[in-house]
Amino acid sequence: MHARIALLPGDGIGPEIVAEAVRVLQAVADRFSHTFELSEHLIGGAAIDAVGDPLPPDTLKACKQADAILLGAVGGPKWDDPNAAVRPEQGLLRIRKELGLFANLRPIKPLDALVDASPLKTDIVRGTDILFVRELTGGVYFGDSGRRDDGKTAYQEMVYSEAEVERIVRLAARLAQGRGGRLTSVDKANVLEPSRLWRSVTTRVLADEFPDVTLEHVLVDAMAMHLLVRPRDFDVVVTGNLFGDILTDEASMLPGSLGLLPSASLGAPKSEGGGPGLFEPIHGSAPDIAGTGKANPLATILCTAMLLRDGLGLPDEAAAVEGAVHDAVGSGVRTADIAAGAASVTTTEAADAVLERI
């Protein structure tokens, strides 16, 4: 296979972890006889500093022409002013919108070798395997907003259409068919009108198109509690933009470290005219450890596995990367964030351990 992959290192530790992921992609290409054409582009704070735009036109053009996109991280103290007219996060929101990336996938599956690192009891966490599917381009983050009464009153609309709910629920249901056959839809239908629409559309889509998938509706506040006491009970979880943002961050702590968790942002399938997917670790830019060699590259390396499977349709290659990460961690390879006071390895050494196993 010949594939074009756009690299967006971004800010903070982004360039370091993307560099290690590139080594993994090159190793996969060598082992499986592929050609990956890699090109690097600006996004976030680095792009603001260079050209004054968090998503420069050249970056967007390259991403649209790519088969998949790998992103490091954006943001940092230098650009933290929430009142600034131009902010790094705007680049992320724009690229999702421009590429039609309406679904964010976050797998939550603690590694057996690190289950003790979770802040929850081992018997609660062990065996957890949840795939969150978060709607990414609608809802309150994209609703009409503003100020009234001389700035003393603020508002932000939450808006969802039937079509938006249908497409995210169909994707989540298809994913559930390939896993445990169970779908949990999270809403706030007892209070919010958009959630009432969400629930009714979800019920209809599952009944009409996915009778083999078991559907459960859970209110968002209840789900926040369930994640801490019975996370093993969930298979695929689908929810809106705001609720998904909060719940996935909560669930990200089940494995014990943000440095282990990848994510994918996907749009329509290529067969339906969709564009490339975007793959990024869920942790931030961690500017406090940038350049120190302490960053954990494993989440970004696991992003390459998602990129290979969900972006390029290469499941065997993805499994090879995931297996290498699991073997490395199982053999005791630990970066500082998961070392629990024991000896730790550097960013590059952690990647070396994975490369040895591919």
Automatic annotation (TrEMBL):
Reactions catalysed according to its record: (2R,3S)-3-isopropylmalate + NAD(+) = 4-methyl-2-oxopentanoate + CO2 + NADH
Subcellular location: Cytoplasm
E.C. code: 1.1.1.85
Binding site for NAD(+): 76-89, 284-296
Lineage: superkingdom: Bacteria
Family matches, as Gene3D superfamilies: Isopropylmalate Dehydrogenase
Every Isopropylmalate dehydrogenase-like domain range: 4-354
Site entry: Important for catalysis: Y141, K188
Positions that bind substrate: R96, R106, R134, D221
Residues that bind Mg(2+): D221, D245, D249
Cofactor(s) required for function per UniProt: Mg(2+); Mn(2+)
Pathway, per record: Amino-acid biosynthesis; L-leucine biosynthesis; L-leucine from 3-methyl-2-oxobutanoate: step 3/4
PANTHER family xrefs: 3-ISOPROPYLMALATE DEHYDROGENASE
Protein name (record): 3-isopropylmalate dehydrogenase
Native organism: Alienimonas chondri
